[in-house]
Amino acid sequence: MAEASFSIIQNVLSLQTALVGLIAFLVALWYFRRPKCLPPGPWFFFPGKKAHLEMTELSRQFGKIYSIGVGPILVGVVINDAESFREAFITKGEQFIDRNIPPLIKWIAPIEGSFLFENGTLYKERRRFGMHAFRAFGVGQRSLEARINEEARHLCDLLDQQDEEAINPIPFFSKAVSNIICSISFGRRYDYTDPEFNALLGRFRENEGLITFQSFANFLPFLYKLPMYDQHRENFRKTRAFIEGMIEEHKNTFDRSDMRDIIDMYLDEMQRQKEEGASIVFNERSMWRSILDLFGAGSDTSTNTLLWGLLFICYDPPIQSKIQAELDRVIGTERPPSMKDRAELPYTTATIAEMLRVRPAAPMTLRGACSDVKVGDYIIPKGTTVFGNIWAVNHDPELWDDPDKFNPERFLSEDGKEYVHNPNLVTFGAGRRICLGKQLAEMELFLFLTNLLQRFSVSFPPDQLNPDTEGILGMGHNPRPYKVCLKQR
Questions:
Q1: I need a labelling partner for 351 at 20 to 30 A (CA). Which of 13, 74, 296, 402 fits?
Q2: Alpha-carbon separation of residue 201 from 197, 281, 359 (angstroms)
Q3: How far apart are CA 207 and CA 232, in angstroms?
Q4: What are residue 40's phi and psi, to 5 degrees?
Q5: Inter-residue contact 114 to 293 (CB < 8 Å)
Q6: Burial class of residue 421 in the structure, from the number of CB atoms within 10 Å of its CB (0-12 exposed, 13-18 middle, 19+ buried)
Q7: In whole angstroms, what is the distance from residue 139 CA to residue 440 CA?
Q8: What is the number of alpha carbons within 13 Å of residue 251 lying toward its C-beta?
Q9: What is the C-alpha R_g of the chain?
Q10: Are 147 and 153 in contact (CB under 8 A)?
């Protein structure tokens, strides 16, 4: 009898435990539930190695705007079409001016000082400074044009020494492009054989592969402290030490009457704030972080776009022939290209636009809703992470005929004599958070490509069949290594 009573009590307790667990589960579902105003979307999505393609594919199932989550927990809202992209980031750009910060980024480095990840007044002050600094050092002007052409000459001279052998273009282009941001940030360019320079670029490129957009550590950032990320942490430590060393050198030789580079301008801005009693935005503690962002963004994006462009041009030799015919007619061989030549080089300009469309350097832009805001038919709640799917916009079959094909003629007038801008092209983000280095990148892409094809014809080596065109999705979108042969024209 006692045993039966005990058994009944056990069953009752088990039932109570189950009921308590069920109630707790239902309460959790209610607490973490997605707001009803959100667009539909998958209840569980974890990005794989081709996250930009996977997220684009989901738009065919759930619509141009959809939400993603892990169970009832909202991860974010994804915008996949040009109309919604413009509405959110341009028309209502002030409500999406914040950058929601991936948890892993906070574990890697402090956010203070970042051009990419700070928000609010700090971000606006930093962007104001960055735009002023770029203008001061020639971005959009003839002075920087001459510097890029000079760097392109160094690059072409080095390529000429390869005796038409098959080469991997990645290290060559990486050094040339990085030297431009080095001259603006550090006041100097580096010889391509400089061991410190090569080590710096090697660490940057290696870290791109160790921390990726789809890395599981983005969801469980404490994993960053595990041995599997030892190399990334060591690379980052050495990169920070390099930048801090450059800052220390500048402090010892600083002269307010002679602004050599952005580090000098930053030191001057710190002094100005102190003298005027202004709120302190620029300080020594976070200075290295600002320079890191400028150097990293100024090195990788243009390099990758040039590498993608070269890859597609080699796949389609008639494109190269048309560019070179334009260059021969407008510029010839006796002088370097100039930005003013663009108006007379519509096919070349269209090819660069197609490079940016077909393989955007950053397939996603990440924002945060600053308030409850309606986009399309949906209300996006304040604080929601919003993914702007640049890849989806640039490959939308409703906007682009045969979107996966590399075709510069889509940006030309019917007679082929004029470049025609397509407003649906998303290249550097949009709105108030559009890429700070947009104008610099446009100069680099045009001048490096035209200098190269003015002097060389480029092709794949005979033993290299069908190089990969999908690439590797890291923090950006990198092409896989491939080889080319360059022949003097």
A1: 296
A2: 6, 29, 22
A3: 6
A4: -70, 165
A5: yes
A6: exposed
A7: 6
A8: 12
A9: 26
A10: no
pLDDT at 239: 94
Q: pLDDT tens-digit profile of 44-56?
A: 887 777 888 999 9
- Going by pLDDT thresholds of 50, 70 and 90, the confidence category of residue 22 is low
Q: Which of 143, 136, 441 is nearest to 260 (CA)?
A: 136
Residue type, 65: I
Q: Cα separation of 437 and 178, whole Å?
A: 13
Q: What is the mean pLDDT of residues 97-119?
A: 86
Instruction: For residue 139, give Cα distances in angstroms to 142, 340, 384, 432.
Output: 8, 14, 35, 19
Examine the pLDDT at 32 and tell me if it is beyond 60: no
Task: Note the pLDDT of residue 9.
Answer: 46
Segment 260-316, tens digit of pLDDT: 999 999 999 999 888 888 777 888 899 999 999 888 877 888 999 999 999 999 999
Crossing angle of helices 284-315 and 346-358, in 10° steps, is 110
Whether the CB-CB separation of 387 and 364 falls below 8 Å is answered with: yes
Q: Which of 56, 124, 3 is nearest to 392 (CA)?
A: 56
Q: What is the pTM of this model?
A: 0.89
Q: Which residue has the tokens 């007379």?
A: 344
Rounded to 10 degrees, the C-alpha dihedral 323/324/325/328 comes to: 130
Which burial class, exposed, middle or buried, applies to 260 when counting CB atoms under 10 A from its CB (0-12, 13-18, 19+)? middle
Kindly list the structural domains of the chain, giving each domain's residue range(s) and its CATH number in brackets, ordered by start: 111-362+395-488 (1.10.630.10)
Handedness of CA 31, 32, 36, 37 (dihedral sign): positive
Give the closest residue to 133 by CA, choosing from 183, 180, 184: 184
CB 51 within 8 A of CB 44: no
Give me the half-sphere count of Cα atoms (radius 13 Å) on the Cβ side of residue 313: 30
The answer to whether the beta carbons of residues 290 and 246 sit under 8 Å apart is no
Neighbours of 239 (CB within 10 A): 20
Query: Cα separation of 132 and 201, whole Å?
Result: 26
Residue that has been written with the tokens 């997220």 in this structure: 55
CA distances from 50 to 137, 363, 365, 431 (A): 38, 11, 16, 26
Q: What is the pLDDT of residues 198-239, one digit of tens each?
A: 999 999 888 876 676 667 777 778 888 888 889 999 999 999
What span, in angstroms and rounded, lies between the C-alpha atoms of 59 and 81? 9
